[in-house]
Fold this protein.
Amino acid sequence: MDPGVAASAFALLFVAEMGDKTQLTAMTLATRYRALPVAIGVCSAFLVLNLLAVLVGQVLFRYVPQQAVLLAAGALFLVFAWKSWQASDEDEDETGPADARSAVITSFLMIFMAELGDKTQLALIALAASSGAVWSVFTGATLALWAVSLIGIFVGATLLKNVPKALMHRAAALLFAVFGFLALWRAAAGTV
């Protein structure tokens, strides 16, 4: 493994994702669910996505049209916007085993769909292709994306302790809706 390539991949992706929709999504998910299941789902999604990016990303982009990815991501964001809005009206206990499983699956799907074909995945493909150090790029990029996401999850989980739960669910619903409509708009406009 080349530490210089890993450090370069880490720095590039850490800066690129700080404050990006993925970090905001992780933060929002942590206001709805416990932090640990969200972290597991988010980190698992990045592990799979980064592996796809450095090994088979270019092939994937040939067979899955970007518009289809955007349509699926937009629909998924809107479903979770609706679920978050509904949750603000309920007094639910989100600490049980079913909720932990739901949080892991939801977090995985949200990040996977949001990042599939995103600029960071394209950057990973380019870094791996230009350096030839596939595992160094994979390691640096994965650690960067995990770090950014964990910062977002920590902030989201901390907000939950200081802000009424219903308000956070409503804010999460609005954020998911914005991302959903933006993805659908990009799909309709043909901009990727």
